[in-house]
Write a structure and sequence with these properties.
Number of strands: 11
Order of helices and strands: HEHEHEHHEEHHHHHHHEEHEHEHEE
Number of helices: 15
Shape: globular
Radius of gyration: 27 Å
Structural class: alpha/beta
Helix content: 40-55%
Largest sheet: 5 strands, parallel
Strand content: 5-15%
Distance between the termini: 50 Å
Length: 420
């Protein structure tokens, strides 16, 4: 199978890695290259293809390894892997790199409720220290004065705005936003379906049909085409014998004939996958779960009707379940104001976030407020200010459970056209 390497991707990695192995007079070269972009666009896989093409050996660290019940372990792991890679350069006499996948998942802070642990602090500090002193990386409790070989570090992630700002400054990390254009997608998808006989025109039509889908969608689509044959195989031998036939059989692995990779069949299967995506997005099962467990809905309640039996009183009574001292706003809809009251009445706190149209595609929301809001008047005034300040952006209201430290509601109340 011939895989496609995007020229922009190849150039960026090749230049960064090579530059770190050269001694350029008077030039400070960033040690870390941060490759970020939306999920499923093949950042890690493109890296692997570049490493293979250039004959580079890689030492891997997963974002999941950057947390541990023992304080200091992840930071020590980074230093250990860095030193091991430096030794590989010395022994093998070739380029080697250290690669950290999904750095933002292991060391990022996605909102005020994300726990910031000692290990998170140490990981950030360790990477900063290595970037500043790449030839003097020591293990805790020991010191070796022998300078190390400089090891380029490649990190991937979806949203680097969640990382510690001093770590991603330009002197330490060079950033590369990876968003494949149509030509890149066509090239990559043609490589995925190369054994299946799709013409260039058919690949282009397939990519254009699912233009908003990421690269991994097309890889999953190819895998799905085999489902029908595997289903027939299971029914043919019986569910009870599948394990013995596949895992521990003297007959050898089962063989399948080439499935139907016609364009119409691919498009039909693709639409089924898109339908499943939309069901996940629209299910809102967390709302149903919370309604069952709390007896309340997170949907905006209608504004309370003022009747003779629900007039404000002077002794602190409530009106339709809400306190008398309600704030109101001529700039917010009654539904939004009622939703704010409903959230606060359930003991939750409110946060307000904004994002422009470009970052909306990657989900890179930013907070409009410094802390969570627990007063209705503050929520309304902050929301009005945010709507005025970010009139050309998306604005969303977030409800946060302070006890469970998790979000229970995210709802967009303004889109870039300025309407709310």
């Amino acid at each position: 199978m011939g895989y496609y390497i995007a020229p922009r991707f190849l150039d960026k990695l090749a230049v960064h890695i090579t530059k770190n192995f050269l001694k350029l007079p008077g030039v400070r070269v960033p040690l870390i290259l941060g490759i970020h972009g939306r999920k499923g666009e093949g950042k890690s896989f493109q890296c692997e293809l570049v490493f293979e093409k250039m004959g580079i050996e890689v030492t891997h660290i997963s974002g999941g390894e950057l947390e541990s019940p023992d304080a200091g372990d992840p930071a020590r792991l980074i230093r250990l892997r860095y030193r091991e890679t430096a030794e590989l350069i010395k022994v093998r006499g070739k380029m080697c790199v250290l690669m950290i996948n999904d750095l933002d998942a292991g060391a990022g802070r996605f909102d005020e409720g994300t726990q910031y642990t000692v290990n998170t602090q140490l990981v950030n500090a360790t990477l900063m220290n290595i970037a500043d002193n790449p030839t003097d990386v020591q293990l805790p409790g020991s010191y070796d004065s022998t300078p190390l070989n400089r090891v380029p570090i490649i990190v991937t992630g979806n949203d680097f705005s969640t990382l510690y700002a001093p770590l991603i400054r330009d002197g330490r990390m060079e950033k590369f936003y990876w968003e494949p254009d149509r030509d890149d997608k066509v090239g990559i998808v043609a490589g995925i379906f190369e054994p299946d006989g799709l013409s260039q025109r058919q690949v282009e039509q397939l990519v254009d049909t699912f233009a908003n889908q990421s690269i991994d969608f097309f890889s999953a689509l190819r895998s799905r085409i085999y489902d029908e044959q595997i289903r027939n195989f299971i029914h043919q031998i019986g569910f009870e014998r599948v394990s013995l036939r596949v895992v521990n059989s003297t007959e050898g692995p089962p063989e399948f004939k080439k499935p139907d990779f016609s364009l119409s069949h691919l498009i039909e299967s693709g639409h089924l996958m898109v339908g499943e995506q939309k069901r996940v997005e629209n299910s809102q099962l967390v709302d149903e779960y919370n309604r069952l467990n709390r007896g309340r809905s997170y949907q905006a309640a209608p504004p309370p009707a003022v009747t003779p039996t629900s007039q404000p009183s002077t002794n602190g009574a409530t009106t339709n379940g809400f306190p008398n001292k309600e704030s109101s706003s001529p700039h917010l809809s009654l539904e939004t104001q009622a939703q704010i009251r409903e959230i606060l009445a359930q003991g939750y706190k409110i946060s307000i976030e904004h994002v422009d149209e470009r970052r909306f595609r990657t989900g890179s929301w930013q907070s409009c407020v410094n802390s969570h809001i627990d007063a209705e008047s503050d929520a309304i005034s902050n929301l009005e200010s945010s709507l005025a300040e970010y009139s050309g952006e998306y604005i969303r209201l977030v409800a946060i459970d302070p006890k469970a430290k998790r979000r229970v509601l995210e709802t967009i109340i303004q889109r870039p056209n300025g309407k709310n």
